[in-house]
User: Fold these one by one.
Assistant:
Number 1:
Amino acid sequence: MKKGKDIQPHIGIFGRRNVGKSSLINCIIGQDISIVSVVAGTTTDPVKKSIEIPGIGPTIIIDTAGIDDFGQLGELRIKKTKEAIAYIDLAIIILSNNNFGEDEQKLIDEIIDFGTPFIFVHNKSDIASLQIKEEIEIKYKTEILDFCTFSPQIEQLSELIKRHLPKTVYCEYSLLSNLVSYGDIVLLITPIDIEAPEGRLILPQIQTIRDALDNDCIAIILKEKEIDSFLKQTKIKPALVISDTQVILKADASISTDIPLTGFSVLLAHYKGDFEHYLQGTPKIKDLKDGDRILMLESCTHHVSCDDIGRVKIPRWLTNFTGKKLEFDVVSGLHALPQNIKDYALIIQCGGCMITRKQIINRLKPAIDANIPVTNFGMTIAYVQGVYDRVIAPFTGKLSNEDYL
């Protein structure tokens, strides 16, 4: 079985002010990318840097403000620091001067709440030994690395990171695992419309093409207008068809019911989304009532077109399907969710091609904890257009060919 690699893992650096967080990052990167100062509180908002870690690959390192900051501005910095916990795959907690107390314990409690692994680095170990090292390692069942930025143990730190980076970063299966076999033909339907980027394909389409090749398959790419003539002229019967869900009705009409059909967004939902909760949440669309609020989660920032999928098309399709007057809010990027999450009747997450599975799971966690239904863009589109059962069948196996007839 082919394995997959998620988007770059994110590693957050946490600790009190002036413990050497920025210095540690500069050592790892080998550049003076983060500002280092003896003045406490130099780092304000979280700062990201993409690096290559041997044995891990491209990685995002996040430098955060001190967890012991104070005052009105300091509280805002701490809030930003703790928001970063929701989208990291591993936390590195920096200790120095034998300081370990309530600030660290609160931080660790929040990290544990998100199910995120963490390790400790004892910085400035050349100045003083960490007296409670053994106690911390036993209590939290993790490791502490003695570290000094003047003679940094980068190799040891890299090995420590590799040991504790969760296996979910390295998916046990790829996008198309269990869907295709050696030599299969995969047909990809990719419309070129107003939302298509100039001169290139969108990331999910590129990822699927690469995954088809990695699985020793043959990928054929065409627009929705060419489906019928291509199938008629070539007599090719694909092993799998993957369509942009915005043209899923056309694909459903053109592709024989004995050929598995799904959408790019549904494929991503299964690969890195909270698929089980999506399956539970999507049918709740039919229960929406007048005045219900729906939260749309976009995982990247992009130019909003007049026919934007998340801000225009899906709201219009949902309104037409339910016949209800619905309210929609949008959160883009990895910005914090609204505090009153219980105000929403439904949360709809995009495919998440730009973020990791961990980030998607943690982003949806407040809604799931509050028993609010969640789904994703592609599954929502398929549901309101009446092809939901068909596009999830390749993953659930609940439908036979006869069920499509």
Number 2:
Amino acid sequence: MKLALVGTGRMGQAVEAVAIEEGHEIVARFDVTNPLLDAVEPEALTGAEVCVDFSLPDIALDHVHRYSFWGVDAVVGTTGWYEDLPKVEKWVEEGQNGVLYAPNFSLGVAILVRALRGALPLLNQLPDYDAWVHEIHHTGKLDSPSGTAKLLAKEILDGLDRKDRIEPETQHGAISPGALHVTSARTGHVFGEHTVGFDSAVDQLLFKHVAKDRRAFAYGAVKAAEWVKGRTGLFTLDDMLSDQAAS
């Protein structure tokens, strides 16, 4: 498979290494010195079948529009544009391309989400368990809370009637029972740790994922590129896992 890298930083480099190991070819690279948005023709992709985008939040939406305008499939790991998903759905429909997006491409995180989703109906009937989310990343992380923490928090809000909003800020007093506290820490070189907890007076239940290497995300992105190639629609990593589980 021929791939174009959009963003050649640490994640882009990790994706390139894994893609080559998996037998794929990198045929185009775009970054701040060669911006994708400066390319006016799809020929700039030099035959790439899928674009893998780990760029910057402020240009990600424009990139997604360009992929649909050119009719090329894409895997997008850049966040910060999800409020425009209805608009993107129209672009993808018009472009007849496939776009798979995720705030975290670790397959372990996708499995954690599924495990959490399975447990929430029972936890919804057990009000003594109070939920919380905590994430840790390296000091260069741009957003806080992380996109993955927000994804996990949304699952909890959807699954627990007693939680009605996310509270990401430090609390200097008692927190409202309806608030889901989502906290963050930034330290050292941590690739990413996400913990979802349910605490009662007598015990505590933890769902936790620890990324040990950036390759965990790169591998998931390459697998996503293999899956989305030739498909039409707007997809998530969960769609890919559902399809694979059914096959």
Number 3:
Amino acid sequence: MLEKRLKLFKLLGFEVGIDLSWVFIATLIAWSLSTGFFPFHYEDLNTQTYWIMGIIGAVGLFISIIFHEFSHSVTARRYGMEMKGITLFIFGGVAEMPDEPPTPKAEFMMAIMGPIASILLGVLFYLLYQLGNQLGWRDPVNGVIGYLSTINFILAVFNLLPAFPLDGGRVLRSILWRVKNDLKWATKISSRIGSGFGILLVVLAVVQIFNNNFIGGMWWFLIGMFLQNAAKSSYQQLLTKKALGGHTVEKFMKTDPVTVTPEISLRDLVEDYVYRHHFKMFPVVQDSDRLTGCVTTKEVKQKPKERWDEIKVGDLTSPCSSENTVTPETDAVKALSLMNKTGSSRLMVTRGDQLVGVITLKDMLDYLTLKIDLEEAA
């Protein structure tokens, strides 16, 4: 969800970015406000004014969500939790936290500060809206301020719903965690509640659509599907971290990987290696195990097929980087995260300039499937 990320700025040590999905949702919000919300509440304004109000309202929502997420991040840092940054995505924002909170209290305080921040913003905009009424500000100005007050209260209430991974769901998880001292059990229960709530929203969306409220129904449907998927994936992520926790790449790597040399032709690479082993990336080695780089099918496709006999692998070999190599001591969870980030299913395991193995996504997933299946059954 968060891999196609565009960096915007850095504030208080936190990097703020947007997922590409936010471009879609911001456009949809501006359109909904410009063609539905503001024309309904403020009649007899021209189309250009409605669109200006809609765009400013969307930008205000953008800033409100950042403020909401910053409150999470600052609180998390106070409790010693590492925060990578803040990313706005299709249904709001997320403070990127690589690890689970250390204690139930830390999670409770981190989770509750988001809704509190939104309530404070809602009160601030409401007071500003009342001031505008007293001073006779024009409808386009006061209309946007009133919307921002309302939407921040809605953000607070919605996020307080006990549906994981919403803030209210995290509050619920922290309480369950404190009661039973079992994070896995608490996550399982709160995730099921979150998934059930998502299904409920989808049902309500269908009702809205049948009642001729297509825009409202569409929003409920999208939010419901998001919540259901997010709840399930959050629990799966915890299971993954628990299963891989404490293990290094060395446990999963294959010490006899398939390699190629710089001297072979692209024709031999394709016929003898790609079609035989079905890999898209091969380590290129010399002198038995000295790694000189890697070659991928992406580079091969860029060369005319009629020249495959004359072009050598060494001509297409690209240098190794931190995106396609790890060390045997690398944490397995970090290696899995790197695969997810780069879209690669294989990473080269190196020690210095020596290739000592290859780790594949398939091997890690097979291990996860077996471990989770056995332990869940037990």
Number 4:
Amino acid sequence: MKILILTGGFGMGHDSAAQAVKEMILSSEPSANIDIIDIIDYIFPKSSKVIYGCFNFMVSKFSGLYNFFNKFTARRTSTPLKKSVVRKIDLLLKKYDIDMVISTFPACSQYISAYKKSKKCDIPLYTYITDICANEEWISEKTDMYFVGSENTKNLLLSKGVKDGKIVISGIPTKQKFREEKLVNIEEDKKEVLIMGGGLGLVPYYDNLLSKLSNMNDINVTFITGKNKKLLDKIKKEYPKIKALGYTDKVDDYMKKSDLVITKPGGITLFEAIHTNTPLYIIRPFLYQEIENARFIQEQNIGKVVWTKGTDICEDVTSLLKNEILLDYMKKNMKDISCKLETLSPLVYYNKKEVGLCF
């Protein structure tokens, strides 16, 4: 099997999902030949850094504008630069001689769908939706299967005309190590709080929270800043009692030993927490898709979401940490969610007899 996984570098979630899907396939089919391609790097090799830089700046500084742009593009039914991109997709698929395409980014699904329609071929296209909310941009005419995070997402797709047989509730892809049982060193006399802000290290109102938590003797705080080196240096300098680190591939270890994770509600982080049974604490989500993820957290009772100003975050966090009954209830709900997910490799849904010739 030759499999192409297409993704995008808008945040770290789409690429993380791609890596998780690759790991899942290789666990059941070690001989599979899998390549992961960033669609923006491939289509716009000379300007991809500028595109991603503008995205990061917009998310960090102008979240309202980002939300407006996100909602606007979600309503678009046309695929920009379709003809030129289809030509590039044609070269890409010929180069790798692909049997199946998997997408973890909406534009990838749209372009492969346009390619399939243009070339009149039936190369399987599987789309992994990386948030609970599925905008129209995720839905493409020639997608063969959708892998979604929850029943909510499935119902949303059904309401938009996607057939029931094309939807699998798999959860949002996470690496296997988040699902594995592992013993971690825990100080029983102290609560462990993990703070993460995604790839950009964005956590609202962290200054006041850190200044208070760092002076509490019964709480250990770890702050993972991702690729935000400026934030990492600031925390190390101003809050020496807090364990601060940048990008790490051991997030699963930190989650498993934590009693609570304070974070942005990205789709990947959400399901990493679900698989490690770590209750979530969300402070005023501001990005469109993360607001929908936060609603899911609240509805499923797997964490707490602070929606408005005026809450004493530190007092609220410490109160939650003392409420063992509530924390155990959240953990139970997380376990129930993970037990209901379909965790089979996407190759299970692949039928070579249905594959048509594209070239």
